[in-house]
Amino acid sequence: MSTESILTEPQPLILHFGSVMQKINDHEFFEFCRLNPDWRIERTSEGDLIIMPPTGGRTGKRNFTLTGLFGPWIEAEGTGIGFDSSTGFTLPNGAKRSPDLAWVKRSRWEALTEEEQEKFPPLCPDFVVELRSRSDALGTLQAKMQEYIANGAQLGWLIDPDEKKIYIYQPDAEVHCLENPETLSGDPVLPGLILDVQRLWS
């Protein structure tokens, strides 16, 4: 695949603030993000800002499909809450991250105060998905997945539609890569979930 074909979407902008950004509290960062609603903004544990422009049409379509595939299971299973890519979470290491899809056990969500639920929930989701677009560096997303696991996620899927690969992340386990699977099971973290992976390739 040529470099020209990969760089079809705007690249994320990374601003290095270091300790300066770490001095901004959670409320101030939340208000900063609200003042810039056209951007998805993440903050690393080191204080860097990652500003992500709106996605291209193909990535947006895949994100919509992914959310639609999970919706019926979340409603039927009932023990957790689903979140789309616009939701930011404050991880235990201080990073502010926005996975493309997330799921949190209902008991953990309901243990938060209303204010914590309203802003960036101070927890790492139990399950996360990152959907790679052509502008995403694979190594960057792999490091992000490892961060989720290190901060408490019980299951993570890194989905690479163009390569038709899915990388599976779990605590205390080697990363497992599936090549062009038909379906993907969420057991035991997501009991009964079977994802029709082929829907994401089209």
Describe this structure in words.
There is one protein chain. The protein has 202 residues and is an alpha+beta fold. The protein has a single domain, classed as tt1808, chain A. Helix content is 32%, strand content 25%. The protein has eight helices and 13 strands. The chain has helices at 3-6, 19-22, 26-34, 57-77, 106-110, 114-118, 138-150, 198-201; strands at 13-15, 40-43, 49-52, 80-83, 89-90, 96-97, 101-105, 127-131, 155-160, 165-169, 176-179, 183-185, 194-196. The protein has a six-stranded mixed β-sheet, sandwiched between helices. Strands 1-3-2 form a three-stranded antiparallel β-sheet, with no helix packed on it. A two-stranded antiparallel sheet has the order 5-6. β8, α7 and β9 (155-160) form a beta-alpha-beta unit. The two termini are 18 Å apart. Mean pLDDT is 88; it is low at 1-7.
Shape: globular
Q: Remind me, CATH topology?
A: tt1808, chain A
**Helical content class:** 25-40%
Biggest sheet strand order reads 4-7-8-9-10-11
SSE diagram, text form:
Layout: H1 3-6, E1 13-15, H2 19-22, H3 26-34, E2 40-43, E3 49-52, H4 57-77, E4 80-83, E5 89-90, E6 96-97, E7 101-105, H5 106-110, H6 114-118, E8 127-131, H7 138-150, E9 155-160, E10 165-169, E11 176-179, E12 183-185, E13 194-196, H8 198-201
Parallel strand pairs: 8-9
Antiparallel strand pairs: 1-3, 2-3, 4-7, 5-6, 7-8, 9-10, 10-11, 12-13
Quick recap of the structure?
With 202 residues, the protein is α+β, with helices and mostly antiparallel strands.
Please supply descriptive tags for the structure shown above.
alpha+beta; tt1808, chain A; six-stranded mixed sheet; three-stranded antiparallel sheet
